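Notes continue from the previous slide.

Worked example: a multi-chain complex. Inputs as given:
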Amino acid sequence: MGNLKKIAASILLGLLMAPPVSLHAADDNWRNLSPREKETIRRNYQRWQSLPPQDKERLREQWNRWQNLPQDRRERLRERYNELQREKRRD
Amino acid sequence: MRKTVKNLPNACKEFEEDLVLHYYNEGSAAELKRVEEHIALCAPCRKFSDDLRRLLPQATQTEELPQSFWDNYRREVMHKIAEREERRSWWRDLFAPMQSWTVPAFAGAMVLALGITFTLDKVAWNRGGEPQPLPIPQEILSDPNSVEFFKSMDLVEALSKLEEIEGSKSEQKAPAGAHSI
């Protein structure tokens, strides 16, 4: 009975401690980003919020496809994307 | 008051204990008989036995105490009990809340303290020149996959287009390669 109480107390304490730990992890993730990345994330998140559901779904599918691409292909596509961005800025 | 018990006369050393046992009628019948036979023949032991019969009841007689003694005794006991209760009550009051609700209350206080610590930490961090945190939910920021998604969202949106360009570039390269062969 005493052990049961100890286990229950440990679980309760763990549950109570979990949110602060996750908040701290989120803070760490955020702090490790560069200002440019932070700005991109902020902008994309706000854009995401205003997207219609079908666009969100399409993006999710694209994201899954992107994640399943081989590493070298992803790198090539990223390079291509960066090139296009640079060209766009030049124009 | 206590009555003084006169010293018992000397009896035969080896019979002293037996005489006392005889007085209390303890021991085997043979032993008692042996002592009785000795008493009949030995005057000091007979005297000793008589004195036992006379003095022992006096020695065991309980002393009658006056009512004032019992009154004082009762008052003193009650006073001591009250003192003890008083001494115990202050720490009981102190630890009385350490009952069933203490553990969750303590856990709650700990969580609150941690929450305040994290909030203050965040505020202090922001004051240090860091841009104001975005209104992005913490669960998204705590998930590296979600962070990566929002970081690469522009690219992901353009994925099909990029693949098309990449494909057409590869096609352009391929005939050139074929030609060279």
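Summary box: The longest helix of chain B spans residues 67-95. The radius of gyration of chain B is 52 Å.
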